[in-house]
């Protein structure tokens, strides 16, 4: 069983609707958001015989910005960062805010050993290693004959 992505489990069409609404060129130069586009980080999932690897593309963040949580077989990867810049002049103060956050959730297969999950952040990529339980590593692939 592979990792399953679920951002809006109750309303799957909402994910596509929000992507269509916010992932549009007209939002690029909108006055708020410091000219940055709303985006959900891309995720790669690789399966090996002994583990899954998850790579989350999240450049510009720091290790302390991330939160990883497992609850009831669901892995949640989230991040939040806030920046504030201030520049004073004679008659005015100019402030710019930047707030970014995301949340991705994945249903873990029973074969994952949740106690052994490890994470590291390097070069703008969050790397997670999700080892499989020992008994799941030795399950071989086979074809099932239909009678």
Give unreliable regions as ranges.
22-38
Taking the alpha carbons of the first and last residues, their distance comes to: 24 Å
Average of the residue pLDDT scores? 76
Based on DSSP secondary structure assignment, what is the total number of beta strands? 8
Q: For the largest beta sheet, what order do the strands appear in spatially?
A: 1-6-5-4
Q: What is the top-level CATH class?
A: Mainly Beta
In the CATH classification, which architecture applies?
A: Sandwich
Shape summary: elongated
The string of secondary-structure elements, in order, is EHEEEEEEEH
* CATH topology annotation: Immunoglobulin-like
Category by helix and strand content? mainly beta
What assembly state would you assign to the polypeptide chains in this entry? Answer: single chain
For the largest beta-sheet, the strand count, sense and barrel status come to: 4 strands, antiparallel
Whole-number total of structural domains: 1
Question: What's the alpha carbon Rg, rounded to whole Å?
Answer: 20 Å
Indicate the percent of residues in helices.
10-25%
**Which percent band covers the strand fraction?**
35-45%
The number of helical segments is 2
């Amino acid at each position: 069983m592979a990792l399953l992505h679920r951002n809006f489990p109750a309303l799957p069409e909402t994910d596509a609707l929000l992507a269509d609404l916010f992932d549009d060129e007209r939002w690029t130069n909108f006055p708020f958001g410091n000219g940055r586009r709303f985006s959900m980080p891309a995720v790669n999932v690789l399966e090996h015989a002994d583990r899954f690897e998850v790579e989350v593309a999240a450049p510009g963040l720091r290790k302390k910005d991330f939160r990883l949580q497992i609850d009831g077989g669901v892995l949640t990867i989230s991040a939040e960062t806030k920046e504030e810049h201030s520049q004073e002049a004679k008659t005015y103060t100019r402030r710019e805010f930047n707030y970014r956050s995301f949340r991705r959730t994945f249903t873990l297969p029973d074969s994952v050993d949740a106690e052994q999950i490890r994470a590291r952040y390097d070069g703008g990529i969050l790397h997670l290693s999700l080892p499989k339980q020992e008994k799941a590593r030795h399950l071989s692939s086979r074809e099932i004959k239909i009678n």
